[in-house]
UniProtKB/TrEMBL annotation:
It is an enzyme of class 3 (hydrolase). GO terms for biological process: proteolysis. Its cofactor is Zn(2+). Residues 195-388 form the Peptidase M28 domain. One of its GO terms (molecular function) is metal ion binding. It comes from Heliocybe sulcata. This is Peptide hydrolase. It comes from the Eukaryota.
Length: 408
């Protein structure tokens, strides 16, 4: 792939100006941050213009895209960007055209999701969760100019995340537990790899896998602009990382394998999660439940603090189980909400025939409207809440223990 320092290398200046005005004209690149002592500090971003080096993006490259209710069709990368700016959601299936054919028939699923019954194991771990780690980690994660999956800084942020997961594992997991943990990169052609941290199950008979995920990449509506991605999905990324830390610190030894996934290129059409799901489906991996956390920080002013449980394009039985987890272990209620077709990485697992679910910060209409701009920052508003994120870390701990079991 060719390296382009700016989109001007590909399009006439007049077209560039038109595209830029249509896509980002209504958005400020950076806003004056909200300042308060209890808010984590947003590290400074370096502003730039369209001539920003280090982004490999051919706006004329043709990609095969699948929108809801339509046959797949070819469009350019620029047309993908325009579609996203218009609010359209889609799969980019260029490398995963056979994912549907690999899908596991629902009738072959043998798993059921009973009511939560592991409170004696879950609740002590919940008490060890903290906002300290998420604040520190998200301040660093959002300091990269962008985590766009085709950018150099997107690759650098992924390497930082990989290193941080490894450091947390070395610090908090016992030597015996470390022998059960594997941390690996799932390689992608665009350079920013997905990350998988697996706590291998103790059972020699049950090969089931539980997956907890978030996406690590960020984007601006115009990808050449800064994209700190504090909420989308830096919040989900550090939320599940804090859950992982608390679980291994408690010497969590699951009966079933429990995996934590940080996907690349969600913003490009669920590219990373589709690649991982395709690999698992091709190997007939027995994934019995997946849950995605995408945006966990925002509590809109004047609204009730709650967990948004997505109810469309998800597995209904697993979704009902998630509601029970919220009722049993969280301090706030849930609200049912919808997000549409291919709205986050859970959709890739549903497409592969696995039970998938998705939770987010609120009802969809109350979610953070700063996403995909330079304003998606930690310090933009008191509505960005690390305490709210902590509720989702509790949810993840409960999900892992209740479904993974614990060979204590």
């Amino acid at each position: 792939m060719r390296r382009f320092c700016s989109a001007r290398a590909l399009l006439p200046l007049a077209v560039m100006k038109c595209c830029f005005a249509l896509i980002v004209g209504a958005y400020a690149v950076l806003a004056t941050p909200f300042s308060r002592s209890e808010t984590a500090v947003q590290l400074p971003l370096v502003e730039g213009d369209l001539n920003y080096p280090g982004i490999e993006l051919d706006l004329n490259e043709r990609r095969l895209v699948q929108l809801h209710g339509q046959d797949p069709r070819w469009m350019t990368e620029l047309e993908k960007i325009e579609a996203k700016a218009q609010g359209l959601r889609f799969f980019d299936i260029t490398e995963t055209q056979d994912l549907d054919s690999l899908a596991r028939p629902k009738e072959l699923r043998k798993s059921s999701f009973p009511s939560p019954n592991s409170t004696e194991q879950v609740k002590p771990v919940l008490k060890t969760l903290s906002t300290a780690g998420p604040k520190e980690n998200l301040a660093k994660f959002t300091s990269f100019r962008t985590r766009y999956y085709r950018s150099d800084t997107g690759r650098q942020s992924q390497q930082w995340l990989l290193s941080t997961i490894s450091e947390i594992t070395a610090k908090y997991a016992s030597e015996s537990l470390q022998e059960r943990i594997s941390i690996s990169e799932f390689s992608h052609s665009w350079g920013q790899n997905s990350i998988i941290a697996s706590i291998n199950g103790s059972s020699t008979e049950d090969d089931s896998v539980i997956i907890i995920s978030a996406h690590q990449d960020s984007t601006n509506l115009w990808p050449f602009l800064p994209a700190p991605g504090a909420d989308d999905d830096g919040s989900g990324s550090v939320t599940i990382l804090e859950s992982y830390r608390a679980l291994i610190a408690a010497d969590f030894t699951p009966v079933r394998t429990v995996e934590f996934h940080w996907y690349s290129a969600e913003e490009g059409g669920l590219l990373g999660s589709q690649a991982v799901a395709k690999f698992y489906a091709a190997q007939s991996r027995n994934v019995i439940a997946t849950t995605q956390l995408d945006m966990t920080a925002w509590v809109k002013r004047g609204t009730r603090e709650e967990v948004g449980i997505i109810t469309d394009f998800v597995d209904p039985e697993l979704t009902d189980f998630n509601k029970k987890l919220v009722d049993t272990y969280l301090d706030i209620p849930y609200v049912e909400t919808e997000c549409g077709y291919a709205c986050s990485d859970h959709a890739s697992w549903a497409k592969a025939g696995y039970a998938s679910s998705y939770s987010q910060e609120s009802a969809f209409e109350n979610s953070n409207k700063n996403i995909h701009t330079g304003n998606d920052r930690i310090d933009i508003s008191p509505e960005f809440s690390f305490d709210h994120m902590l509720q989702f870390s509790k949810f993840v701990v409960a999900f892992a223990i209740e479904l993974g079991g614990w060979n204590a």
